[in-house]
Amino acid sequence: MSNLSSLPEKATEMLEWSWSQLEPYYAELAGRDLSAANVETFLNDWTRFHDRLGEVGTRLAIAKDVNTADKEAEQRFNRFLEDIFPKSEEAEQKLKTRLLESGLKPAGFERPLRRMQADAAIFREANLPLQVEDAKLSTEYGKITGSQTVEWEGKEVTVTQLRPVLMETDRARREKAWRLAAERQLKDRDALNSLWQKFMKLRLQMATNAGFPDYRSFRWQEMHRFDYTPENCKQFQQAIEQAVVPAATRIYARRAKQLGLAALKPWDQDVDPLGRAPLAAPANVDQFKAGVHSILTGVDPQFGGYFQTMMSEGTLDLENRKNKAPGGYCATYDAVKLPFIFMNAVGLHGDVMTLVHESGHASHSFEARCLPWFQQRHAGLEFAEVASMGMELLAAPYFAKSAGGFYSDEDAGRALTENLQKDVLFWPYMAVVDRFQDWVYENPQAAMEPANCDRQWTALWHRLMPGVDWSGFEDVVATGWQRKLHIFTAPFYYVEYGLAQLGACQVWANALKDQAAAVAAYRKALALGGTKSLPELYAAAGAKFAFDSGTLGAVVTLIEEKLAPA
Ligand SMILES: [Zn+2]
């Protein structure tokens, strides 16, 4: 009989474990008779085991990302994915069922129980193979879009790698790069259309299998959206149309004027409108770290302390180098309760924003680590992104050299301006994506036909995204939905960013009045992890979990005041 107390102290001692070594621990947990007297011990032990196994998975995933040429690391990770992960998921499901069937309701466990109940209610054996199929289609989407390359200055580059050219001041070069990318993407139009139809069939079938009248209501449960409804999201779309679209149009108009253009074309959206070179962060990674450490310390010495811990524990892998996976993220080593930030800094201002953003996630992880059970620690994305986007805005006053950062006062102001403009321009786009998906799953038969999707997207685009002249590029506009990864691979998962951004902006508004009080509330909310509802988490952070044009309009007015040219 295995005993949970025989578990190694460190997850690093379990990296090579096989399923047969892990299985007895699950069996022991699943075999316990649960009662009010022992349920907390059960949750403690489950957490002890889950944290170690979770950390194994995280360590193996990070190991393959820090060196993509390390074949052994790749094999170790794949072995974990194939041999361990599906079995551990199944075993976890058994433990969840066991707890649910016991009818016990441990204190502080209301939200996790609710998530478990939702999972159990929609679980259908028949959907498992469909989920595998769905994952394969997602991989296919990644393959199609990831292999979109063009020839640029004699070299083959991905369309993503062309993006920095769109920030250059040479307009002809921007137009050339933009057209090249757009033409290349259009070549996959048919392939993505047929992939879309496969996705749709699968998803409608999954909803039917689970006994739901439509895919959206199925997905709502699957995503644990207990605190808001599709109606709330529609209200938010309308609020954006009313309160944000006019402000976004003013930003585009000012940009056109500054650039001296009668009309903005698609390739004029990323360049600095005053013709300045892009903001640059310290290229030296140690200076970069020291600077961000100082910025975070400015926000709150505790956040600086967290970052210092990550520096001394070696859980910051920041610089771009050969054989490193692309992208950036924050993951947590659960057993040692230490976050890890992975990114590819090359000395751009965007890298500073990425690191500050990920440090918001890392601080969330530090603040919530005292919660005893792993199911309590994670807030939904609707709040997790308040932590990260909130940190971006709370950190803004400390970007200047005079306040501990590394920018001139002018550049620090420019950094905030760029961030606030990005926020205003994002909401209308988010509304297009969200409204489009409502239409898709309210009219699944029509949406099965890609030409109808093209028409729907085009209409929404012109309604919610005025300010840029797209004439002559009707096909590029019409296929915009094909370029939004989430529509294909994570349906309905997008409004979260818009909601969280509204939360983060409210935290920022509070900070403008009283920085110390705003930071204190923000920290308090982070420490709640996933133990409270979204309205409660937002309220703790000093914000309202809101969909209405009043709340949104107030924030947009404040942003526009800050953006007003001196
Ligand atoms: Zn994030």
Descriptive terms for the model:
566 residues; mainly alpha; two-stranded antiparallel ribbon; 23 helices; 5 strands; binds zinc ion
The portion of residues forming beta strands comes to under 5%
**CA gyration radius, whole angstroms:** 24 Å
pLDDT < 50 stretches = none
Count every beta strand, where a strand is a DSSP E run of 2 or more residues.
Answer: 5
What is the H/E order?
HHHHHEEHHHHHHHEEEHHHHHHHHHHH
Structural class: mainly alpha
Individual helix count: 23
Largest sheet entry: 3 strands, mixed
Report on this model:
- With 566 residues, the protein is mainly alpha-helical.
- Helix content is 63%, strand content 4%.
- It is built from 23 helices and five strands.
- A three-stranded mixed β-sheet has the order 3-5-4, with helices on both faces.
- Helix 3 packs across helix 4 (110-122) and helix 13 crosses helix 21.
- The protein is globular.
- The model has no long low-confidence stretch (mean pLDDT 95).
Secondary structure layout:
Layout: H1 19-30, H2 39-66, H3 71-102, H4 110-122, H5 127-146, E1 149-152, E2 155-158, H6 171-186, H7 189-209, H8 215-222, H9 230-243, H10 245-259, H11 285-299, H12 301-313, E3 316-319, E4 329-333, E5 338-345, H13 349-367, H14 381-395, H15 409-442, H16 444-447, H17 450-464, H18 474-478, H19 485-489, H20 495-513, H21 515-527, H22 534-540, H23 549-563
Parallel strand pairs: 3-5
Antiparallel strand pairs: 1-2, 4-5
Helix pairs in contact: 1-3, 2-3, 3-4, 5-7, 7-8, 9-15, 9-23, 10-15, 11-12, 13-14, 13-21, 14-20, 14-21, 15-17, 15-20, 15-23, 20-21, 20-23, 21-22
This protein binds zinc ion (ZN).
